[in-house]
Specification:
The structure is a single chain. The protein has a 14-stranded mixed sheet. It has helices spanning about 15-40, 45-50, 85-95, 100-105, 110-120, 130-140, 165-170, 175-185, 205-210, 230-235, 260-270, 285-290, 310-320, 345-355, 370-375, 395-400, 420-425, 425-430, 440-445, 470-485, 490-505, 550-560; strands at about 125, 150-155, 190-195, 220-225, 250-255, 275-280, 300-305, 330, 360-365, 385, 410, 435-440, 455-460, 465-470. The chain has a domain at about 5-50. It is globular and about 135 Å long. The chain contains 22 helices and 14 strands. It starts with 13 loop residues before the first helix and ends with a helix. With about 550 residues, the chain is an alpha/beta fold. Helix 3 (about 85-95) packs across helix 5 (about 110-120), helix 4 (about 100-105) runs antiparallel to helix 5 and helix 8 runs parallel beside helix 9 (about 205-210). The chain is about 35% helix and about 10% strand.
Length: about 550
């Protein structure tokens, strides 16, 4: 590029001014060309060749075009959702009719769902056949998924329908004492072990000792286990050793384990200082075994049903004076009318007077209860009441049931003053508007073809229920909502007139539609159960008392065997 000193025209003459304007225009055109040459796609070589004479641009780098930066919209995915929301979504999937099948198909959606779904899928494992247990054991051998398992559920386990005997199953080596021990080794975080009578021969002393020494085990259920091999192995386990306690065990069910000796029961109960739920229905419980319960126990659920070897004095003394019964919410004292009952009228009177306030479940089925004893029952939070085969009358129920504002289920089977004609009366339908489920003897409901506002459901066993129809429940909830309204609304007045007009135009004879009973997981069924529910971890991480759907043998003992 030429230096400025080489060009020195005369600044005062008109020719110099003209030359200055020409050079200024030339420099302006050169700057425009530089910008265009920098953006030329043919590269700097062509740009240099078109350079005006006297300019050297060999060492210059062409400028890059300034392109506007458009911000990309962030794509939202399931991975960006919080863990709590994803857990709730997966719980809805597990709670569906298909159960874990939909959850398995959903695991391949994204990584976050896979991580949460696997833990939820393995949390509560249910074994219905030997093949299911064998497949589960092999699946956790190399994956380490056994750390997610919290519940072993054998309540529905059976080999019926496979064409095998117990001896054949033991020879196949799918569900044996050794395979159960191996599965327990891989599931060190097990919280609940739900056994049944179908695997009682596979529970040897080594399996029982391993269960009782697991670090976080809280629940043991041996419902219906009566095999001689199981009784022998239980007697030879840590249960009978001195100076050994099961501090982590909080829920124990020995429902219908009627072959366990009283000595073993006494030793077992004395080594559980932190129990909160205890079911010893139909066992050889004695006075010594009942009072062997440590004073540190704080029971909320207790079943002493059909314990014929315990005396009335021990039962009354335990329920009234023992520290373990100060926080009871659930009590079952059911006795069959055809079996000897140790409790008399005065015993029931004493028990009802000293029971803790706020009971939610009270079963005095088959006891010597009269109308005057009904007034001793605290009904502030009572949801389930069993008065079957008692000495109460219809007149006493008319005075008592309207005061039960929270009652959802009542058992009135075997009461002589209640018949089919009594059920059709207006007095019965007005007893308690909150009760959605009644239970009567099958002889009473067999003659009841249909009843307005109710429908009959016959169970598979010897039980029969009368459900309030859904229309009546909705009508009751709507009336309660209207009572809460305090402001006047012309729209509500118009809606009430339309409903009244439609009600008047309905035909007098209505065709009765068949209604289905509530599903097995509906909370109403927990009030009709005679078995203490010791499992609080439902399918798929649903840790809520709303899971009440018992399966297999538990379903039989809870709703069929009365």
């Amino acid at each position: 590029m030429p230096h400025i000193e080489e060009y020195s025209p005369d600044w005062d003459t008109p020719a110099a001014a003209k030359e200055r304007r020409r050079s200024s225009l030339s420099r302006r055109n050169s700057s425009v060309w530089l910008a265009s040459a920098a953006m030329d796609s043919q590269g700097p070589s062509r740009a240099v060749s078109r350079c005006p004479s006297g300019w050297n641009l060999t060492g210059l780098t062409p400028l890059t075009p300034l392109t506007p930066v458009i911000p990309h919209k962030k794509k939202r995915s399931l991975d960006s959702l919080p863990q709590e929301i994803l857990t709730i979504i997966l719980q809805y999937v597990v709670s569906s009719d298909t159960g874990p099948a939909d959850l398995c198909r959903l695991l391949a959606t994204c990584g976050r769902i896979y991580d949460l779904g696997v833990a939820m899928l393995y949390r509560h494992v249910v074994f219905r056949t030997p093949h299911a247990f064998d497949k589960f054991r092999w699946s956790i051998e190399g994956t380490g998924y056994g750390q997610h398992v919290r519940v072993f559920d054998f309540s529905a386990f059976t080999s019926v329908g496979l064409g095998r005997t117990k001896r054949m199953n033991s020879e196949i080596q799918m569900v044996t004492a050794s395979t159960i021990r191996r599965a327990l080794d891989l599931c060190s975080q097990l919280v609940e072990f739900l056994a049944a009578e179908s695997i009682d021969t596979d529970l040897d002393a080594a399996v029982l000792d391993q269960l009782l020494t697991m670090p976080v085990l809280q629940t043991l259920d041996f419902c219906g286990a009566t095999a001689p091999q199981f009784i022998e192995q239980l007697h030879g386990s840590l249960v009978m050793q001195q100076d050994f306690s099961f501090y982590t065990l909080t829920k124990l069910s020995l429902h219908c384990c009627n072959t366990i000796p009283a000595e073993t029961l006494t030793a077992f109960l004395s080594k559980c200082p932190n129990l909160t739920r205890l079911d010893v229905t139909h066992t050889q419980l004695t006075d010594e075994a009942l009072h062997a319960v440590p004073p540190t126990v704080q029971l909320t659920h207790l079943s002493l049903s059909r314990c014929v070897r315990v005396s009335n004095h021990s039962v009354v003394r335990f329920l009234v004076l023992h520290p373990a019964c100060k926080k009871l919410k659930w009590l079952n004292l059911m006795f069959e009318a055809t079996k000897p009952n140790p409790l008399g009228h005065r015993d029931i009177d004493t028990i009802l007077r000293f029971l803790p306030k706020g009971m939610t479940y009270l079963n005095i089925y088959g006891q010597k209860v009269t109308d005057d004893l009904l007034q001793l029952i605290d009904t502030s939070k009572l949801r389930s009441l069993w008065l079957g085969y008692t000495q109460v009358t219809m007149k006493g129920l008319e005075h008592f049931l309207p005061s039960c504002r929270s009652l959802k289920f009542v058992n009135l089977s075997g009461i002589p003053s209640i018949s089919t004609w009594t059920l059709k009366s207006q007095e019965f339908q007005n007893l308690s508007s909150t009760v959605d489920m009644f239970e009567f003897s099958p002889e009473t409901l067999d003659k009841l073809a249909k009843m307005r506002g109710f429908f009959v459901f016959q169970g598979r066993g010897r039980r029969c229920w009368l459900f309030r129809s859904k229309d009546k429940v909705l009508e009751r909830e709507q009336s309660q909502h209207n009572l809460r309204q305090t402001s006047f609304s012309f729209g509500q007045v118009a809606l009430d007139r339309i409903n009244a007009r439609n009600q008047a135009r309905r035909p007098m004879v209505q065709v009765q539609q068949t209604e289905k009973p509530p599903p097995s997981w509906d909370p109403i069924w927990r009030y009709a159960s005679v078995k203490v529910n010791v499992s609080l971890i439902g399918l798929g991480n649903v840790s809520s008392p709303a899971i009440y759907g018992n399966e297999g043998f538990y379903n039989y003992y809870a709703y069929h065997n009365i």
